[in-house]
glucose-6-phosphate 1-epimerase (Vicia faba), 313 residues
Amino acid sequence: MSQKPVYVKQCIGLNGLEKIILKEVRGFSAEVYLYGGQVTSWKNERGEELLFVSSKANFKPPKSIRGGIPICFPQFSNLGSLEHHGFARNKLWTLDPNPPPFPTNSSSKAFIDLILKNSEDDSKNWPHRYEFRLRIALGPTGDLMMTSRIRNTNKDGKSFTFTFAYHTYLYVTDISEVRIEGLETLDYLDNLKNRQRFTEQGDAITFESEVDKVYVSTPTKIAIIDHERKRTFEVRKDGLPDAVVWNPWDKKAKTISDLGDDEYKNMLCVQSACVEKPITLKPGQDIRRMRYNTFFLYRNFCSLISCPHLLQI
């Protein structure tokens, strides 16, 4: 008698932190730590890792985890008074026992709903009440979908404003052999040049030095092509107009304590985000269409001419 498949499994991860394993019947899997509400692993049916996590990553609160998909809220970057990339990635999320219906069409049985609410510590630097619900789903064909709902629960009549990103670290074979398609001819803010605005000139984005750019008004689909492994990631997003592209390269990597000196070669951050124009929510108001999907595709590169946050391979 065959056993029923286990789609969701709770267990203990590094340093005693609780994590959830999502698994589909074809062998696709994902790993989510309740600390940070953070996806730290995403594997295809061959067991190959698709996300990058540094060998020096800290799995010790209150340090953030370097890699996977950190949640940047209520601030992306360090433009405000909060810690770099906000506090959501440094908080312990909880499983949501009574999640509301989410606007997804996924038929996945491998999913979890997480929730994060304001704490007294948050109020010291960001005096607002909020409710952040996050669904993480692994589709039957291996796609990874993340859907966020953020609500203003202030009782004092005050609105709040925030920026946001799914800070996705993709694992690539060799950053020098990677290209991004879908962002050409678009405007971007260059964080290496005091956020000056430029227009992308190339027919695709390739890498030969440090890159830290916020592309604005981006399309809903972006392709990341790993030539050496003949793999294409396709990012699909909804409600997130910007896309952040980052790789620290060699000199910057050596200054990052939780990143190996040469690990920049195997990572690329392509982040679905809302950065240029912050979101403002009135009391009782929420935003629901912040979705991110990623897929991966293996293709014959002889015929290859040209991602809710959805990651697809």
Observations:
- The first helix runs from residue 120 to 125.
- The two ends are 33 Å apart (CA to CA).
- The chain has two helices and 22 strands.
